[in-house]
Amino acid sequence: MSEQENVKVVQDAYAAFGRSDVPGLLNHMTEDIDWQMFGAPELPTAGPHPGKPEVSRFFKEVGETWSFEKFEPRQFIAQGDMVVALGFYSGTAKRNGRTFGSEFAHVFTVRNGKVVKFREYTDTANMVGALSGSTKRV
Fold first, then answer.
1. What is the pLDDT of residues 29-82, one digit of tens each?
2. What is the pLDDT of residues 91-119, one digit of tens each?
3. b/e for 38-77, b at 16 or more Cβ within 10 A?
4. Which single residue of 26, 35, 67, 126 could bond 49 by disulfide (Cβ 3.0 to 4.6 Å)?
5. How many domains does the chain contain in total?
6. Cα separation, 33 vs 53, whole angstroms
7. DSSP 94
8. Is-contact 63 55, C-beta < 8 A?
9. SS3 label, residue 134
10. Is the residue at 138 inside a domain?
């Protein structure tokens, strides 16, 4: 697939997330998706999430943990089968009402029209702080 087609796959996946359509989002992934969010173990969504069932649990945990006010992928950079999305998100920890905000870099590997690998890089200390109530930054 072309780099533009790979960007479209990623943009379509983000659109599904924006509609809270997790099944639609999962349709953009291979069964053996290699999904990872780097961060401290205090962050319930951090760590590896191999395969669609684990990614589905990841999004369930995201929905139970956060209420997003903004989720804005702002720039897409493609090279070969890799697409990097740079953006910003902010929200509230549901358990205590504390806010967080962070820029992010999401790195996708796309093959044959499906995401096979995902890595998330963000300010997870900010997110852990919001969960623990030790900080309030946006």
1. 999 999 999 998 899 999 999 999 999 999 999 999 999 999 999 999 999 999
2. 999 999 999 999 999 999 999 999 999 99
3. ebeeebbbbeebeebeebbebbeebeebbeeeeeebeebe
4. 35
5. 1
6. 10
7. T
8. no
9. coil
10. no
Mean pLDDT of 115-132: 94
Q: What share of the chain is helix, strand, coil (3-state, %, to 5)?
A: 30, 45, 25
One-letter identity of residue 130: A
- DSSP assignment, residue 43? S
Q: Is residue 78 assigned to a domain?
A: yes
Domain span at residue 80? Answer: 3-132
| Amino acid at residue number 49 | H
**Distance (Å, whole) CA 7 – CA 85:** 9
Q: Which residue has the tokens 């989720």?
A: 71
Q: Is the dihedral of CA 39, 41, 46, 51 positive or negative?
A: positive
- 7, 79 contact by CB (below 8 A): no
- Which band of pLDDT confidence, cut at 50, 70 and 90, is reported for residue 135? low
Query: What's the CA gap between 96 and 78, in Å, rounded?
Result: 38
pLDDT band at 1 (very low <50, low <70, confident <90, very high): confident
